[in-house]
Amino acid sequence: MWHASVLTIFPDMFPGPLGLSLAGKALAAKIWALDAIDIRAHAAGKHRTVDDTPAGGGPGMVMKTDVLARALDAIPPDGRPRLAMSARGTRLTQSRIAALAGGPGAVILCGRFEGIDERLIAARQLEEISIGDFVLSGGEIAALALLDACVRLLPGVMGKEASGAEESFAAGLLEYPQYTKPPLWEGQPIPEVLLSGDHGKIAQWRRAEAERLTRERRPDLWAAYLARKKP
Ligand code: SAH
User: Fold this and answer.
1) Cα(132) to centroid of ligand 1, in Å?
2) Partner residues linked to 109 by β-bridges
3) Is 87 in the pocket of ligand 1 (CB under 6 A)?
4) Helices (DSSP H) in 15-164: which residue ranges?
5) pLDDT at 166 > cutoff 90
6) Straight-line distance from the first to the last Cα atom of the chain, in angstroms, rounded to the nearest whole number
7) Which residues, 6+ apart, have CB-to-CB distance to 70 below 8 Å?
8) pLDDT for the residue 42
9) How many angstroms from the chain centroid is the CA of residue 111?
10) What is the mean predicted confidence (pLDDT) over 181-203?
């Protein structure tokens, strides 16, 4: 069973939205398991303090090494990658998601306040992962996004096994546009080729549209795609 352990000071945020829909059904079906570990349970003292003022001064608070180390070290090493959600981390990609989904699961540390003491990240060799170039107030929503993307790739979670293969990023391209009935809506028709029943032509059109959208919207992906195509 794919196993996620999330370390957080807000364990009530889990499973949250992952308790519904595809991920929720898969959770109930034991295709994956989730424990939300309360970091505060590993803190000492009456106040169970998890943070302290930043060395060097400045605003906010920083999550303390000792508490986080106790919380992490309470999880026996079991081959699962240990991740820290971080705005400074490596940008998350669909290929990293696919690799994580293909493994045993993940241990995910969620930051809060100004973030996590750097020494903890180094000492426990955490892989810092960012979900985009913007700042959240905590790692929990980032962890939920990462888990959602992983869980939908687990065998038996998506309705059609094939639906993952053609999606955005799978081939290094954005997905082609999708349409459904009615054939004419507010004067806009569904592209004729999609109603032709000619599967070869449809595949060709979709490929061309995927390439056009990627070229127009994501020059970075387009350049990488071209570089891969031409050896
Ligand atoms: N001072 C930090 C931001 C702290 S935000 C900075 O400038 O980089 C508090 C926590 O939210 C972080 O520790 C991290 O766990 C989480 N977080 C914020 N933005 C994120 C992002 N884009 N991706 C992943 N996690 C993020």
Assistant:
1) 10
2) 7, 84
3) yes
4) 21-28, 65-73, 94-101, 118-123, 140-151
5) no
6) 39
7) 42
8) 98
9) 15
10) 98
Let me know if 230 is exposed, middle or buried by CB neighbors in 10 A (0-12, 13-18, 19+). Answer: exposed
Atom in ligand 1 nearest the alpha carbon of residue 132: 22
Pocket flag, ligand 1, residue 105 (CB < 6 Å) = no
What is the distance in A from the centroid of ligand 1 to the CA of 176? 32
139 Cβ closer than 6 Å to some ligand 1 atom: yes
What does the mean pLDDT of the chain come to? 96
Can you give the pLDDT at residue 164?
67
165: pLDDT confidence band, cut at 50, 70 and 90? Answer: confident
Q: In the predicted model, is pLDDT for residue 163 greater than 70?
A: no
CA atoms of 119 and 62, how far apart (whole Å): 12
State the distance from the centre of ligand 1 to the C-alpha of 136, rounded, in angstroms.
5
Q: Whose CA is nearest to atom 23 of ligand 1?
A: 130
Q: 112-144 pLDDT, tens per residue?
A: 999 999 999 999 999 999 999 999 999 999 999
| pLDDT value at residue 91 | 98
The predicted model scores a pTM of 0.96
The closest residue, in CA terms, to atom 8 on ligand 1 is 87
Domains of the chain, with CATH numbers? 2-151 (3.40.1280.10), 171-229 (1.10.1270.20)
Q: Could you tell me which residues come within 8 angstroms of residue 125 by beta carbon, excluding any fewer than 6 positions away?
A: 82
Which pair of tokens denotes residue 207? 């490929």
